[in-house]
Design goal:
With about 180 residues, this protein is an all-beta fold. It has no helices and 13 strands. The strands form four sheets. It has a four-stranded antiparallel beta sheet with strand order 7-8-9-10, with no helix packed on it. It is globular, with a radius of gyration of 17 Å.
């Protein structure tokens, strides 16, 4: 996270509404971490997804917040020996977001966000955000014309996502075991 080549530990704290960062200071065969640093996010963070969202070469954090009904995006400002992140950008999602995946959905070279929501207020939905960031600034746009339908077919759940901006139809298949 800080560019020194050593992997850090990042853990969401569901009850504390923050994420804990443990900077890796290992040397040789001696495993060691600095004391934790907590960063506030929304209420009941579930997971942490790591990806360079703004294209500046540093991995940023995306954290779905189950009760806040948003996702916290933390831009990485770290330098070697110093873990630092911006205050969270918090785009709204559907009810009870559970997980975040990042991938280039519109093939523009930038990772877009898809958030799975499982709350009773919105049903099982997916919130999609188009990445309009430039290096040094994270910017996300709610994808207009977004349509989600869940269809149960025997043991398969199909997610049909029609994104009008690109006139594309994406099929995501999740096999339930």
């Amino acid at each position: 996270m800080d560019g020194d080549g050593l992997p850090e530990i990042i853990a969401p704290n569901y009850q504390s509404s923050n994420v804990s960062l443990f900077r890796n200071v290992s040397v040789g065969n001696t495993l060691a971490f600095n004391p934790k640093v907590d960063i506030g996010v929304g209420t009941n963070p579930h997971y942490v997804t790591i990806c360079d969202i703004d294209g500046d070469g540093k991995p940023d954090l995306a954290i779905p917040n189950g009760v806040s009904n948003n996702v916290s995006i933390l831009r990485n400002l770290s330098s070697i020996g110093n873990l630092t992140f911006t205050s969270a950008l918090t785009p709204s999602t559907g009810s009870e977001p559970l997980s975040v995946v990042l991938g280039d959905l519109d093939l523009d070279g930038k990772p877009d966000l898809a958030v799975s929501n499982h709350g009773s207020n919105s049903g099982n939905t997916i919130s999609v955000f188009r990445n309009t960031s430039v290096p040094g600034t994270i910017s996300l746009q709610t994808w207009r014309g977004f349509f989600v339908s869940l269809v149960n077919a025997f043991d398969t759940v199909l997610f049909f996502i029609n994104i009008i901006l690109t006139n594309s139809l994406f099929f995501f298949i999740n096999y339930i075991i």
